[in-house]
Amino acid sequence: MSKTVVVKHIAKKYKMYKKDSEKLLDLILPGGYGDDFYALRDISFEANEGDVIGIVGVNGSGKSTLSNIISGIIPPSAGTLEIKGQAALIAINAGLNNNLTGRENIELKCLMLGFNRKEIRELEPEIVDFADLGHFIDQPVKNYSSGMKSRLGFAISVNIDPDILIIDEALSVGDQTFTDKCLAKMDEFKERGKTIFFISHSLNQVQDFCTKTLWIEYGEVKEYGSVEEVLPHYSQFLKDFKKMSAQEQKKYREETLKKRLGSSLTAAK
Ligand SMILES: Nc1ncnc2c1ncn2[C@@H]1O[C@H](COP(=O)(O)OP(=O)(O)OP(=O)(O)O)[C@@H](O)[C@H]1O
């Protein structure tokens, strides 16, 4: 089975400021203010054709940062990424222009992806039909609910037929009918051997839909392997975490934050 995504030693660094004034001063005198914070540090893994990878991890662990890097929306601060084919990200709000209508967004996105006018004319009815937004398709996206934005984003991304599909929490805001329709479409992608990354806090969806699980813990790969192997470990971690007292949870968060601050880093390149 051929490799579609190869991620080597990826890190993503942001600046963390204690006060707004520090941010301003850092603009004037770059480098002198704020701490380096690693949203991701030293992430390496590979994905193959037909892999459906559930990315799990607690809030703030780095899942969206990773999905944005794989889809090319943001660059990594270090490391390399090899992608075979075209990757499309489906996330709430991703790539939609709020001032344009749904239909105009379809046209813009397709143009940006290199489709010509004729191809767009052919694709548009399929996308409009899948999104099923009624007359809202001709309303500005700023008037959409988050579920409606997700419908439009999903409809565009699956109908342009990408090789790699990255779904970041987009299903969590859809109603059941739409979620079922999306899951059916994703099954079709899976059967056609595409690579899918599925970011979700729903362990049931990961269990039912994915073949592999990538568990990210505070910017690092904690475990990567089959769903059967990794998901029970993550589930146990969540149970243990819930059992901790508020004080213990706070201590744990502080310790992991320390590991992500630049001064204490050794692994991130
Ligand atoms: N532009 C940014 N500037 C500074 N810090 C950022 C930026 N984007 C993300 N972060 C930080 O990086 C960390 C990882 O964020 P990310 O959104 O990737 O987490 P996540 O695992 O997707 O979380 P969630 O489950 O809550 O969606 C967080 O601590 C977040 O505050």
UniProtKB/TrEMBL annotation:
GO molecular function, one term: ATP binding
Domain ABC transporter: 22-243
Record SUPFAM superfamilies: P-loop containing nucleoside triphosphate hydrolases
UniProt entry keywords in alphabetical sequence: ATP-binding, Nucleotide-binding, Translocase, Transport
Pfam families: ABC_tran (PF00005)
PROSITE patterns assigned to the protein according to its UniProt record, in alphabetical order: ABC_TRANSPORTER_1, ABC_TRANSPORTER_2
InterPro entries named among the record's database cross-references: AAA+_ATPase (IPR003593), ABC_transporter-like_ATP-bd (IPR003439), ABC_transporter-like_CS (IPR017871), ABC_transpr_TagH-like (IPR015860), Bact_Polysacc_Export_ATP-bd (IPR050683), P-loop_NTPase (IPR027417)
CDD domains recorded: ABC_KpsT_Wzt
Stored Gene3D superfamilies: P-loop containing nucleotide triphosphate hydrolases
Classification via PANTHER family: TEICHOIC ACIDS EXPORT ATP-BINDING PROTEIN TAGH
Family: Belongs to the ABC transporter superfamily.
Listed name of the protein: Teichoic acids export ABC transporter ATP-binding subunit TagH
Naturally occurring in which organism (per UniProt): Heyndrickxia acidicola
